Predict the 3D structure of the following.
Amino acid sequence: MKEGDILGHEFTGKVMEVGSGVKTLKRGDRVVVAPNIGCGECFYCQEKEWSLCDNSNHKGNLQEKITGYPTGAFFGCSHLFGSYAGSHAEYIRVPYADHGCFKIPEELSYEQGLFASDAAPTGYMAADMAVMPGDVVAVWGAGAVGQMAIAGAWLKGASKVICIDKYKFRPNITRAYQKRGA
């Protein structure tokens, strides 16, 4: 990170301007934006592996020196991930907006749409990759992503979900899932 960098990778907002290459969005659309930036055209994006995009991170060579391979770019992360400003800004330029911005239905608030940016897909993906029907599942950490992993575990058919967190109020929230069988 460098002085003046803008953090933040989860965000919603209103489209204020549209570049000439954007085909699916118009001024005034309410959108939620994915934290990773994918071009939509490269091999990885075609395989829906957006975080590995070959074209979004123009500084991937810096990562390659450390990890042996580059990844795609992310909003509000270090310069290793493309140097894109994050969501803690008044305005944000969204590269490849047709592939990273998703319209929020009118019946949902911005706050409701925000979970689709990162917390819900990350938590659900963890459950989708790990939970089989009937499993007993333990989730360490019941912040936003943990809560979504817990809900995802129930959706995938877990027979029991155990929540472990250092804050006593967080596991109490998960009891609502258990009572509803979410």
In short: The chain has seven helices and seven strands. Residues 119-180 form a domain with the Rossmann fold fold (CATH 3.40.50.720). The chain has a mean pLDDT of 89.
